[in-house]
Design brief:
single chain; 140 residues; mainly alpha; Sufe protein. Chain: A; 2 strands; globular
């Protein structure tokens, strides 16, 4: 199993290839387009993230002690952010997710290159992912 920190280090490496933020945005958009299509049954009000300017859906399943996240957004850059978070935190245990320090966000300069509303959305997505982890941890 790949750890959260190993996944973060790979993301940092991928983004470090580019100096220009337009190229980094292109990479983000590309990552978003590689997200599997979210089944319409999960695009429900209950799965919408509060605090995001664009519409972001996040669903989580608990399988064999690990959380599997699925998500989507109607905005291409935000969908890329969703993809990064899902890639980093999916298939991890609730404990690993809850204790994770997501240093890649600052390391790739993501937070400083997002508008305040997108930045708030990022925080809201992370909060929701950790809430799922907490809920599943309490069910163990």
């Amino acid at each position: 199993m790949t750890t959260i920190n190993e996944l973060q280090d790979r993301i940092i490496e991928e983004f470090s290839v580019f100096d220009d933020w337009m190229d980094k945005y292109s990479l983000l958009i590309e990552m978003g387009s590689s997200l599997p299509v979210l089944d319409p049954q999960y695009k429900i009000q209950n799965n919408l993230i509060e605090g995001c300017q664009s519409r972001v859906w996040l669903h989580a399943d608990f399988i064999d002690g690990k959380i599997n996240y699925k998500g989507d957004s109607d905005a291409v850059i935000v969908k890329g952010i969703v993809s990064l978070l899902i890639h980093t935190l999916s298939d991890q245990t609730p404990d690993d997710i809850l204790s994770a320090d997501l240093y890649f966000i600052n390391a790739i300069g993501l937070k400083e290159h997002l508008s305040p509303t997108r930045s708030n959305g990022l925080v809201a997505m992370l909060k929701q992912m950790k809430l799922y982890a907490l809920a599943f941890k309490n069910k163990e």
